[in-house]
Design a protein that fits this description.
This protein has 206 residues and is α+β, with helices and mostly antiparallel strands. It has eight helices and four strands. Strands 1-4-2-3 form a four-stranded antiparallel sheet. Helix 1 packs across helix 5 and helix 2 crosses helix 3. The N terminus is likely disordered.
Length: 206
């Protein structure tokens, strides 16, 4: 398939695999996955069922803005005296409340990370080093055999300078901007860039 052929994606069967999608869509998903990892990896590691895990969560929920609302949203109706006892470790919550505390903690952490995109941008920019991007080409098994390309392979790039705009576009749901960013990224492939307009998977090493 020529580079121009990718403008007619699906003409030769590539769209029969739902995992074969435009890079802008796959990039948005990769950013969401990287953000989720950042939320989890930077969170409290100890389970809520341990003393350390419970105390850490309760301290976060009782000292961070929005903590009381997060607990209420998770269904916690305990009085302040009980919440204080949970925080100090002098009283153990019932299993249902332990689950609600865990839910409240992760919901609040996710909310705070999402509302501080600067931290995510900094994470991706990595002090100017950028982020490793692993690009998996489309699955060609569904493409008519005469139209398959024998030179498609996993490509790896160290991408810099685009992440501030990419995070803003992801947050705003600006697919048009993500398309521009994706075109900039695959532009590194020179004449072969068109073959990676549509891809199967993008992995961000962040």
């Amino acid at each position: 398939m020529s580079t121009d052929g990718w403008k007619n994606f699906g003409k030769y069967g590539a769209n029969l695999d739902p995992e074969n999608r435009h890079g802008k869509i796959v990039l948005a998903r990769a950013l969401e996955d990287a953000l989720e990892r950042m939320i989890i990896d930077g969170g409290i590691k100890s389970p809520v069922t341990t003393r350390r895990g419970l105390t850490a969560r309760m301290k976060y929920l009782t000292t961070t803005q929005g903590g009381a609302q997060a607990m209420a949203d998770a269904g916690i109706t305990a009085v302040p005296k009980t919440i204080n006892a949970w925080t100090k470790g002098t009283q153990n919550p019932l299993p249902a409340n332990l689950e609600a505390i865990d839910t409240a903690y992760w919901n609040l952490r996710a909310h705070n990370v999402l509302n501080n995109p600067g931290a995510f941008k900094q994470h991706l920019n990595n002090n100017g080093k950028g982020t490793r991007v692993e690009i998996h080409p489309i699955n060609q098994d569904v493409v008519l055999e005469p139209r398959r390309r024998d030179n498609l392979r996993v490509r790896i790039l160290q991408v810099r300078y685009v992440w501030d705009d990419a995070v803003d576009a992801m947050a705003a749901g600006d697919i048009g901007k993500l398309e521009e960013i994706w075109d900039d990224i695959i532009g590194e492939f020179d004449s072969d860039w068109g073959a990676y307009t549509y891809v199967r998977h993008i992995g961000l090493g962040a």
